[in-house]
Amino acid sequence: MPEKLTLSLLQKTARLISIIGHPLVTLSLFSLYIAFQRLPRQNALVLSVLLLGGMVVPICWHNYRQVKRGHYTNFDVSHQGQRTQFYPILIGLLSVTTLLQFITDQPRPIWLGTLCVLALLVSAYVLNYVIKVSLHTALSFFLAWVIYSISPTGGIVMGLFALLITASRLVLRRHTVSEVIAGFLLGSVAGAGCIWLVN
């Protein structure tokens, strides 16, 4: 009985970490924080509308509907075959958002960062034919690198949280060890590349 209770608690904790560490949550919170802390108010508002209206809301709505219809197994689209349908939508929305950031004259580091996320997603889409890359892992380590370039302490904290997110994906059996390693490598390369480009 205690063993089952421990397993249940571990699963619940992993599920909570996975939800809090979802890329739509972490990237949105970071982007909005940076926007309102470092940009003129008008730029911050435009960026918020582009991010929430152009990416977060449409993806949440799409995934929710696909799960309800039985086309996706879960909101995270953890099935490799289902991701071949999901990636083009995700990449299409982010491409439009990136273009609109450029057109609306958002600061160079902002649209370059979004462009790096886009490159990460395109790479994950290509790799999906071979291995299902953990996007939770990839985007959390990407974020850890970017935050580290702004605040080393914040970057280390995010890096530790990224490890917890990675562990949660394994506990929930959404990914294998090789899939989270692929996510770590892809996110780290994209994050380091982003810092190099911006600087």
In short:
The chain is mainly α. 83% of the residues lie in helices and 0% in strands. It has helices at residues 2-20, 23-38, 41-69, 80-103, 108-127, 135-150, 152-171, 177-198.
Topology, please?
Layout: H1 2-20, H2 23-38, H3 41-69, H4 80-103, H5 108-127, H6 135-150, H7 152-171, H8 177-198
Account of the 3D structure:
The chain starts with a helix and ends with a helix. With 199 residues, the protein is mainly alpha-helical. It has helices spanning 2-20, 23-38, 41-69, 80-103, 108-127, 135-150, 152-171, 177-198. The longest helix is centred in the first third of the chain and has 29 residues, at 41-69. The chain has eight helices and no strands.
Distance between the termini: 55 Å
Number of helices: 8
Which residues sit in consecutive blocks of at least 5 with pLDDT less than 50? none
What's the structural domain tally?
A: 1
What's the shape?
globular
The quaternary organization reads as single chain
Global Rg: 17 Å
* Major sheet summary line: none
Structural class: mainly alpha
Number of strands: 0
Q: Could you estimate the helical fraction of the residues in percent? A: over 70%
Q: Approximately how much beta-strand content do the residues carry?
A: under 5%
The whole-number mean of residue pLDDT values reads 94
- H/E order of the elements? HHHHHHHH
Output the keywords.
single chain; 199 residues; 0% strand
